[in-house]
Amino acid sequence: MSHCQSCGACCATFRVSFHIEEVDDVSGGRVPAGLVESVAGQLACIRGTATAPRRCVALRGRIGEAVSCAIYEFRPDACREFAPLAAVGRGDEACNEARRRHQLPPLGSA
Hints:
Helix content is 13%, strand content 22%. It has one domain (4-105). The chain has helices spanning 77-81, 93-101; strands at residues 17-19, 36-40, 43-46, 59-62, 66-69, 90-91, 108-109.
């Protein structure tokens, strides 16, 4: 199990914003439209991440124990690009801030 599969803190800390062209009913995007809400203009976000308390609607499981993403293969670029080395135990500032907010120890530096 990767560090990300036992964490999930980022999915319950930050707003997951992306361009509306990533939505599956717009320009052939991949993010399911039913899980998206409009932010402003061409910007959208995953439901559950726009206001506190934040928790992505696609996040399954218990933070810090075992989690998964219900739309993993269809997740937006913001998720794909977040903390690219966290899965192998190397967190960056944003990853470790999310972990801190959920009382989890930091990962090694990237």
